[in-house]
Amino acid sequence: MDIAAHLPEIIIVLVIVLIIWGPGKLPDVGAAMGRGIREFRKASAETRDAVLKATAMPEGPAPTPAQTAPAPAVPPATEPESAVPGEQAGSDAG
Question: Which of 46, 21, 70 has its CA nearest to residue 38?
């Protein structure tokens, strides 16, 4: 960044700030701007760290298919019992 190219704009902004707030308030304005910049940097660093942590690869080796737990076996379906006692399901008596 070439600050010399933007020097006239910076001087104009500083003069306007001096006119608006006056020389007595400039230290307070500068301190508030410093706090704002510090909070912004802190928040951006925390966000960057959270993104890097969330996208980081796990440290251990990836589990192979043999190391994963097998799916539980489903028992075979059974025919429902007859609702009437004494009758057998699926029998034709007549």
Answer: 46
- Cα four-point dihedral sign 44, 46, 50, 52: positive
Cα separation, 42 vs 79, in Å, equals 66
User: Tens digit of pLDDT for each residue in 59-85?
Assistant: 666 656 565 566 666 666 666 665 555
Dihedral sign, CA of 55, 60, 62, 68? negative
What is the per-residue pLDDT for 39? 97
Question: Please, are residues 21 and 32 in contact by the beta-carbon 8 Å criterion?
Answer: no
pTM of the entire predicted model: 0.44
The DSSP call for residue 68 is S
Q: Cα–Cα distance between 4 and 10 in angstroms, integer?
A: 10
